[in-house]
Design goal:
Blueprint lengths: L19 H7 L10 E4 L17 E4 L5 E4 L2 H8 L7 H11 L4 H14 L8 H19 L1 H8 L5 E4 L18 H27 L1
Helix pairs in contact: 2-3, 2-4, 2-5, 3-4, 5-6, 5-7
Bound molecules: ligand AOF.
Length: 207
């Protein structure tokens, strides 16, 4: 297996993976695993809650700034492919994805429409999809304390979505994928670790 494939640098999104020493210096309460790769994919895996298919509803602002609840990150991500498109069929598609019974169904609907009716996909999708995913993940890992702790507990490890098919969000079968989902989770982990160290510094000053 090409382990190095999981680590290939990408200029616009290089994950910050703190070493064990750095992690301890930032937050001594976090006991990092020895440097390793943590794979996740299916929701029933040990780290399955990292999957976008995990049933954790998120609240995200719509185009008017009103908060809307989505049953999973996957629901939100798939629906975003069609947001802002003036064709009424695009809005129909968003509504159907929003009420999809499962993340699998939401993914199926979003992918099928994208393939069969590409004119319904927003023209800037390829350039905004990473940011859409980042914002959804940030909400998910901010509002569920146990998910936040689980993410922090992986400090020092590389996170890889073990999708054998998805070479953009996943790591691929042999590490040939770009692993953007793992990279975004590592980026968020660094941000949360940075915030907790800043908070503890402020506490020290207050004392
Ligand atoms: N976890 C997981 C998948 N992976 C997810 O699929 C999404 C990519 O969708 P698209 O951009 O439409 O190809 C993204 O959220 C990625 O994390 N796919 C699956 O079929 N089953 C699964 O259990």
């Amino acid at each position: 297996m090409l382990i190095s494939g999981f680590l290939q640098p990408i200029p616009d999104l290089t994950p910050t993976i703190p070493s064990e020493d750095e992690t301890f210096a930032i937050d001594p309460t976090v006991a990092p695993f020895e440097t390793s790769i943590i794979f996740f994919y299916k929701t029933w895996d040990l780290y399955g809650a990292f999957s976008n298919f995990s049933p954790h509803p998120i609240q995200m602002p719509d185009e008017d700034g009103n908060y809307v609840t989505w049953f999973s990150v996957e629901h939100y991500y798939q629906a975003n492919k069609f947001i802002g498109v003036s064709n009424p069929l695009a809005q129909d598609c968003i509504d159907k994805i929003k009420s999809a019974k499962s993340p699998e169904e939401a993914a199926r609907m979003g992918r099928l429409t994208q393939r069969r009716q590409p004119h319904l996909v927003r023209s800037d999708w390829e350039s905004v999809k990473i940011d859409v995913m980042y914002r959804a993940l940030k909400c998910k890992f901010s509002i569920y304390p146990h998910l936040n702790s689980m993410l922090l507990s992986t400090a020092g490890s590389v996170l890889v979505e073990a999708s054998p098919h998805d070479l953009f969000w996943g790591g691929g079968r042999d590490g040939e994928g770009l692993n953007y989902l793992g990279r975004l989770l590592m980026k968020l982990r660094s941000e949360f670790l940075g915030e907790s160290s800043a908070a503890s510094e402020n506490t020290c000053i207050a004392l």
